[in-house]
Amino acid sequence: MTRKGYRRCARCERNRAERFFAGKRGRICATCKRKSRSQASHAARVQAVYGLGPGEYDALVAGQQGRCAICDGTRRQRLSVDHDHRSGVVRGLLCRRCNGRLLTAARDDPALLRRAADYLDSHPATRILGREVYVGSAPMKRGYTSPALDKRIAD
Ligand SMILES: [Zn+2]
Ligand SMILES: [Zn+2]
Questions:
Q1: CB-neighbour burial class of residue 132 (10 A; exposed 0-12, middle 13-18, buried 19+)
Q2: In angstroms, what is the span from residue 31 Cα to ligand 1's centroid?
Q3: What is the top-level taxon of the source organism (predicted)?
Q4: From the CA of 14, how far away is ligand 2's center (Å)?
Q5: Ordered structural domains, the chain, with CATH
């Protein structure tokens, strides 16, 4: 039983106030309606822009378990369709950060990204100087940099 003035949404199965439903017979809440409309228009857009067929964007999302193919991140934002700008081939779904920043900075070059990974694993400064030199007075935890310090260096 649902409380008086409330109705159970047939899609999200939440009990929501009557005002979220259209009319007396509405079965889907306004939030779910808005979501399915925006999903439908997104599907139409990716089909038109990237040449994906009906249901193929959803198939990619499901095949990637809803995760960015690079960082494995699940974000609230929809995953972007990443494509090779030269050949036009659709490569997969990426989060905005990996698609927009990581690949753009790396100029879509796999060899450059492999060199960047090698660089992060083995620091030339340590190899050349024969010792680990630390920024600041005390060794910081690996991977940690202070925002204040970054700003000082950038200025
Ligand atoms: Zn709902
Ligand atoms: Zn990512």
A1: exposed
A2: 6
A3: Bacteria
A4: 31
A5: 51-132 (3.40.1800.10)
